[in-house]
Amino acid sequence: MISAVNQISLLKPDDWHLHLRDGKILKGVLSYSTDVFSRAIIMPNLDPPITTLSRAKGYKERIVQSIPKGVSFTPLMTAYLTDEMSSDVLEIGFKEGIFYGAKLYPVNVTTNSSYGVTDLNKIDNIFETMERIGMPLLIHGEVSDANVDVFDREAVFIERHLDPLLRRFPSLKVVLEHITTIDAIDFVENSKATLAATITPHHLHINRNAMFLGGLRSDFYCLPTAKRETHRIALRKAATSGKPCFFLGTDSAPHTRQFKESSCGCAGIFNAPFALESYLKVFEEEKALDRFEAFASKNGPNFYGLPINDEYITLVKKDIEVPQILDVGLEGDPSDFVKPFHSGEILEWSVVRD
Ligand code: NCD
Ligand code: ZN
Questions:
Q1: What are phi and psi of 224, to 5 degrees?
Q2: If we measure between CA atoms, which residue out of 250, 254, 252, 264 comes closest to residue 325?
Q3: 197-232: per-residue pLDDT in tens?
Q4: What domains sit in the chain, N to C, each tagged with a CATH number?
Q5: I want to staple 293 with a disulfide (CB 3.0 to 4.6 A). Which of 1, 12, 265, 309 is the partner?
Q6: Which residues form the catalytic set?
Q7: Is pLDDT at 170 greater than 90 in this prediction?
Q8: Ligand 2 centroid distance, CA of 180 (Å)
Q9: Does 251 contact ligand 1 (Cβ within 6 A)?
Q10: Is the entire prediction scored with pTM above 0.90?
Q11: Helix axes 87-95, 124-133, angle to 10 degrees
Q12: Gap between the Cα atoms of 203 and 332, Å rounded
């Protein structure tokens, strides 16, 4: 990575956790990711979810058809685990390069997770297969137990489910997605190299107060929710540490205004449009610009056993104003638009686009 004060060039990054949705909105949001990322792990929480080889192939095809002309971008598909998932399907999918991993949503934990797994012990045959073939398990690490406080759900998941799972399957490759707590950081740092974690831009910028600033603000509501400031500070340290167990995963999750502004607003923050600028701001503030390339472009492929990209991307010190709202091609009124993360703010870095 070459870095002067006003310019940074780094190996092209990848996004290891991305929601692209489907249909018209897929076309409307995709270019924000293909613009700066070379590959992305595509989340399978559609309705119906991506549970079969043919659904994965069809979804991949629709993504590929929507990539802007002349742009090179590889969607890496994932399987959505259910109680009924067959280990043969996973094994075939992984060996044929259809699935790069399988996503575990504990049932009812987040958007479109009603088909998720009801009891981890019920799918030990799946974990056994994944461990044997080296297929990564991507986990939404929260319990959906209504008796557990929302802000404790990640820590409780680690203690109740993740720790026992890794004891049962010590060689299973696991990514704990979008971590938000000191508990998760400690657990990942003290585990073997077969466990890693993605960190989103929003969890590096906001703490839980953002959801309640002067009123109820669903724009800052995502799952897992942002936590106390102490956790945010620890996450910034972890992300900028350069440690191979932490890498970039935006969890960009677009929801239109009508679903965000409802009395039961959806969880998810659309950060793809300014994701790199957002991360870079954190690395600059933490005086860790020299470690940005490891986090954004190297640690992820190394964990997944994929080649590091050989193209470069450049960002320059130039103010950029984040729009209040973006039209994502749904051809409706503003209730069909999506608000990007950092809307209305000025970010100091911008990507050089040729
Ligand atoms: C995601 C979504 O909307 O699909 N929402 C979110 O708050 N992150 C699902 C998820 O990753 O939990
Ligand atoms: Zn997600």
A1: -60, 150
A2: 254
A3: 999 999 999 999 999 999 999 999 999 999 999 999
A4: 13-309 (3.20.20.140)
A5: 1
A6: 251
A7: yes
A8: 13
A9: yes
A10: yes
A11: 20
A12: 31
- Name residues with Cβ closer than 5 Å to ligand 2, which is an ion: 251
Quote the pLDDT of residue 2.
Answer: 53
Q: How far apart are CA 94 and CA 83, in angstroms?
A: 19
Cα dist from 100 to 8, 74, 92, 96, whole Å: 30, 12, 11, 10
Tokens of 109: 């934990």
Residue 103: C-alpha distances to residues 85, 182, 328 (Å): 11, 23, 26
- CA–CA dist 162, 183 (Å, integer): 12
- How does the average pLDDT of the chain come out, rounded? 97
Sheet holding 346-351, edge to edge: 2-3, 7-11, 312-321, 346-351
* Type of residue at 213: L
How many whole angstroms from 110 Cα to the centroid of ligand 2? Answer: 9
* Residue 109, pLDDT above cutoff 70: yes
CA of 268 to the centre of ligand 2 (A): 8
Q: Which residue's CA lies nearest to atom 5 of ligand 1?
A: 268
3-class DSSP state of 68 = coil
d(CA 26, CA 22): 5
Residue positions counted in the chain: 354
Cα distance between residue 102 and residue 26, in whole Å: 21
